[in-house]
Each structure stands twice: as C-alpha cells, then as structure tokens.
Fold this sequence. Notes:
- The protein has 185 residues and is α/β, with parallel strands linked by helices.
- Helices cover 21% and strands 28% of the residues.
- The strands form 2 sheets. The chain has a 6-stranded mixed sheet, covered by helices on one side. Strands 1-2-3-10 form a 4-stranded mixed sheet.
- The longest helix is centred in the middle third of the chain and has 25 residues, at 100-124.
- The protein starts with a helix and ends with a helix.
Amino acid sequence: MTDIELLEQMIKDEAKVALEDRNGKQYVVLNEPQCPSGSVTIAGMPDNVIVIKADSFKAPDSIFKGEKGECKRADFVIVADSGQKKVILCIEMKYRKGKPPEIVQQLRGTRCLLSYCQEIGKAFWDKQDFLKGYVYRFISIGNLSIAKQKTRIDRQPAIHDQPERMMKIDWPNSRIEFNLLAGKS
C-alpha cells in the first residue's frame, strides 16, 4: 500500500478536496472559507496525490494552552509522490495579506498534524516507513479578496522548506503550477 492510499483510508472524505480533470490534466481548486470569492487553482497535479483540508482537524485546545500557537493549522496540505520526488505542501490562504508570525504558527501546526498522521500510520497500519523521505514546502497565498493584480511571488533566497522561509504569493491570478510550489524546476 502506498502512502497516498493509506492517507485515503485514514482521512475522512469530508476533509479531502477532490481533484478535477481537464483534457487529461489534473488540477485542484482551493477555496478560502473566509472569502467566498477567494480561490486558487493549482495545475499540473501529479497522479499520486491527496489534498487535505488541514483546518478540518479540530484544534487541540482542550489539552494545550495555545500560547505559542500550537493549536493552529494552515488551510490545506497536499501530499504527492510523483515517483521522482515525494513532497508535502503546507498551504495557508489569506483573504488579505496576513501577519507572518501567525502564518508561521499555522504552518508549524500543520507540520505537527502530518507528524501525528505519520505516527498513526506506524501504530495502527503497521507501516514503519509511512511518510518517510518526503520534503516539506511551506506556502502563504494572500490578498485573495483584493481586485486582481499581477501575481507576485516573493521567494526567499533559500528553498521554502521551513515555515519561516515560506514562499509568499500575493494576488494569485488564474492558476499556479504544482511544480513551482514543490520547488521543482
């Protein structure tokens, strides 16, 4: 069983976003719940992929105080295994710009959610190598509610493999390519 198949079994359908197909090419439309007109299309999705609404996971605030942001999560997680590269995209969408410290907390919380899923896969599916070998990419997409302008991608000098070095995309027009988000050329 692949990691994607295991996640398909593990995650409820209500917490998944379905892929769409146009002319044999897969894409996904991510909607920002706080902004009805705010959506982003990610094109060029690989075949072996699952898209999860990470904020469907209830905040663990009945246990944690939340003073460091440990109860926050980003909006979406895309887990993909293209055969050549295994990648996990943590994506936070904001209808306006968003405050970087809060976005970092949300992206960190999402990484913790995936670590929890990894431990569930090991303990209950007895798959000790579950979600091993994946690289993380952290993305913030902002200004969804503002009239469309030219898409601006603010790339940090290093690859966006830490929440603090997230890729920032503002005023996303039409579509964004999966390979750009995954850090592939």
